[in-house]
Structures are given as C-alpha cells and as structure tokens.
C-alpha cells in the first residue's frame, strides 16, 4: 500500500478526515511557502491543491503495475559547478562582439571548461533556490549544446523571476537572448532550457515540463512577454507557452526587419531598440476585439496557402469527409451498441500514433479504468489483451508493459473521487491537464453520466449554456473536445431496422447540432457482421471536411477498425 510520504505529502500522526498541509508541487516556490494549500482526505487517500491544481490519490498495488515491477523514479542529480575567478579573454571578446559586457557575465556566473569531451565550452548555470541545479554547455567553436545528465530542468535565471517585484517577466528562447535583455536594463528575464521545438515534431509535451516548478510564479505574474525567435520553431514555442501560462496575461514582441532574436537586435540596433520592442509588445491574440493588423501574418498565410486541412483520422476512406483540427467541438451519436466509445478510442489511438497527440478522458462508459487501458492497449499493440486465437495471438507480458508505457505518455484519465462531477469539474481538471501535460484532446463519454444541475433552466437552455462553455474551452486552449451523446428515441425504418439517428434527435434538443463544429453518427446497419458506417452529418468549417459517409470494418479481437 502506498503512503502519502511516497508523494512528498506530510501528514501528522493520527490525522483523519479532511486536513490542510503543504503542497509538494508549489509550496517550495511560493512566496507564502507556509500556506497550507493542499486539501487532503486522509480517509479516502486523495488530495487537491487549491493553488496549483496538483491532484492525486493513493492506490493499492494495481494489477497493471505492482510495486515490484514499477519503474523507479529518475533520481535528480545536482551538478558540481565551479564558477571561474576570471573568464578567458577570448570568451569575453566573443560575448563583447555580441554586445554583452564582462560585468554581465560575472554577475550571471557564466563559466567555461571541458564540456564536450576534451573540447572546452561556455557554461550557463541554472540557479534555483540559490543553488546550481543544472548547467547548459555551449560549444565555443560550433553551435552545440548539452545539459547535465539527470539534472533538474527549470527556467534559466529562475530565482531572478521569482522575486515577485511586479515587473513583467520576459521569456526568451536562449540564454544569450536573456543576457541581451539584461544589457538593456531589464531584470526579470528568463529563457526556456531546451530551445524551441520543430513545428513538425509529433510531440513536444515533455519539452515544457520545466513550467511545472514555475506554476506559482506565472500565476502571480500580471504580464508575461514572450520574446521567442522570429521563425517557425519560435512561433511554436510561443503558442505553447501562451497556452500553458494563460493567453490573457501574455504579450508578444515584433523584431525589426533582418533580426531573428533579441541578440540580433542588440548587436545591430543597440539596447534602446530592445527597450522599444518591449514597450511596444502587443497582447497575445485572444477572443475579443482586434484590429485587422493583428492578424496580418495569418491572413497572408491564408491567402498564400489556403485553409489548412486538419490531421488525418488514420483511415483514408474517412479522411475524404473528416479531419481533426484543434480547438473544435465534435459530437458523436448513434444507437446503443453501435460502437461510439470503441471508435472514439480507436480514433484517438490513431492520432497519438500518427501525430503525437495526448488526451484527457472522462470516459464513464469505459470504467473501471483498467478496462479502458486494456482497450487502448489492444488497439495500440494490435493484439488481444486476454485470450487470442491462432491468427491473432494474445499480447505478451513484454508487449503489455511496452503498451502501458505508451498509454501512460498519451492518455490521462479524469476519474471522480466523489458522487458529483459537473461539466465545470471536468473542465477544471482538463485545464490542469493542458498546463501540466499539454493535452491536445478531451473526451467526455457519455454526456448522460455527467452530473447536471439545471438550476431553474429548461433542458434546452441548459444544454445550450454548457455546450457554449465547452466550445469556449476548446477554442481558448486549442483542444479538440469530443462528446458522446445518446439519441432520445430509437426509430425503425419500414423494414423494422433501426435507422441512423440525426443530431436533432439527441436527447436535449437541436442545440447539439447548432453548437457542434462537427457531428458524427456511428451506425451498424446489420449486427450480423461488423460493418460500421461513420456518417459525418455536420461540418462547420470546410477545412475540417464535408458531409458524407465512410464504411469501416470492426476488428473484434483488437477493437480496431479497417477499411476495405
């Protein structure tokens, strides 16, 4: 049996019921470090932080991962860093050519030494809590980088931005850019540790894990200025930082022509130009009132390239009618037994495998969770979890473990620890999953398992209100949301077979069709075979697809679908 101490949570001896204690995630970095923000239910073995959203629970040894086979946590190692009394003259001159004087290098404890085997390198210490927790090594002769093995990942100049001075925080893409802003007189400047990810990268979720330790800092900050490089990777990093920190407090900079980053500006135009760039930083675009110039680059890209189609579903026959775009709301319906939940899982597995997507799932249809994980494993490994046949043998224990590790990286499960779980409750956890794990999709399956309080509204009014709220969450967080909703009536055709329901027939009224960006019906015309019709009934934006029907074959042994 796990204990609270396994998670770094201090519980007084003999405590019971609901108590408050320090949070292991945010308390060490908070200004009010003694505030007991973590609510713990000792009897239930669960906790939730009212400051940073850290939540979890104790579990018995689980059938899919006993303590004996559990992977040990990676040990964080603190590097041994010896700052020099004086930097070599050639390194000082290199920085001076980039506009950064020696006094800045000394103040920021920049070092040098053998960083790449016998080759020397420049060393940028990452200081947190007054201690060097990591070192970024940069080659002198060539642009190569590395960090200390197994050291902590955090923001550069962590302590400098944790001062709570009220000044805006400036985030750059590299240490030299951060030093450039110091030359211009700014103090609350930092840099991301790993640089910007490629826009083509399938998944860059873990590249932003360093934000977890700074969550409290950004929560208190009023303004955060994103000074990323003016290239495609820089824009990718800019969008992900704004999404996780909160677009409402983020600003973006515009560099002069011919300048890619802050150091370019310092070298070519001087520190005054950097001051002007920060003074002219514009709010990160959010839903609201804007001028056309705010969207000049996007408009030009749309003119040059046309609307960009979304991600492939993984089935070419369905791609003719449907693609998946972040920030949209999809509603899936169909008569009982048509495979709505199974198909949605298969779609998400395809998106995870092909495009690196990650998901949060509130899937009451698939509880208990170990059964849901089993279903995802079968779709990923392409073998049955339990008994297999001659043509499709059962997955091995090694494949099970490999698959579990894959599921662990791509799926996060929203499971209530109490009897009431509203739309707001689900969206709160999903927002934490966006910040903490960078999810791309949210599944609510099915709608009728969510707790609903009409609070004086009619059902039609309530559904309109809740779908608006969910769609707003999808837009603001760039997350695709899928809702599975059942029809209110089952209607037979003249031959006595159940026909495919329309979105207007979903229990609760026409708003299911009105509010959805995409509407899909799953239908099995003949239950004697495994033929499944995927009927796209609504598409709001043409780049997401068009109305039509694709036919897939359900593979019962693995829960996957194939097209003929």
Rounded to the nearest angstrom, the distance between the terminal CA atoms is 49 Å
Q: What would the CATH topology of the largest domain be?
A: Rossmann fold
Helix content: 25-40%
Largest sheet, spatial ordering of strands: 16-15-17-18-14-19-20-21-22
Count of all domains: 3
Report the structural category.
alpha/beta
CATH class of the largest domain: Alpha Beta
The CATH architecture designation of the largest domain is 3-Layer(aba) Sandwich
Question: Low-confidence spans: pLDDT under 50, at least 5 residues?
Answer: 60-72
The CATH superfamily of the largest domain is known as P-loop containing nucleotide triphosphate hydrolases
Structural summary, described in words:
This protein has 564 residues and is α/β, with parallel strands linked by helices. It folds into three domains: 4-57, no CATH class; 89-280, Dna Topoisomerase Vi A Subunit, Chain: A, domain 2 (3-Layer(aba) Sandwich); 316-562, P-loop containing nucleotide triphosphate hydrolases (Rossmann fold), CATH 3.40.50. The chain is built from 16 helices and 22 strands. The protein has helices at residues 89-97, 102-107, 158-161, 175-183, 215-220, 232-245, 262-269, 271-279, 296-305, 316-319, 340-355, 369-381, 397-410, 423-437, 459-477, 511-515; strands at residues 18-21, 38-41, 46-49, 55-57, 111-116, 119-128, 131-139, 145-147, 169-172, 189-191, 224-227, 250-252, 282-283, 329-333, 359-363, 411-413, 441-445, 480-484, 518-523, 531-539, 548-555, 560-562. A nine-stranded mixed sheet has the order 16-15-17-18-14-19-20-21-22, sandwiched between helices. Helix 11 packs across helix 12 and helix 12 (369-381) crosses helix 13 (397-410). The longest helix is centred in the C-terminal third of the chain and has 19 residues, at 459-477. It starts with 17 loop residues before the first strand and ends with a strand. Residues 60-72 have low confidence and may be disordered.
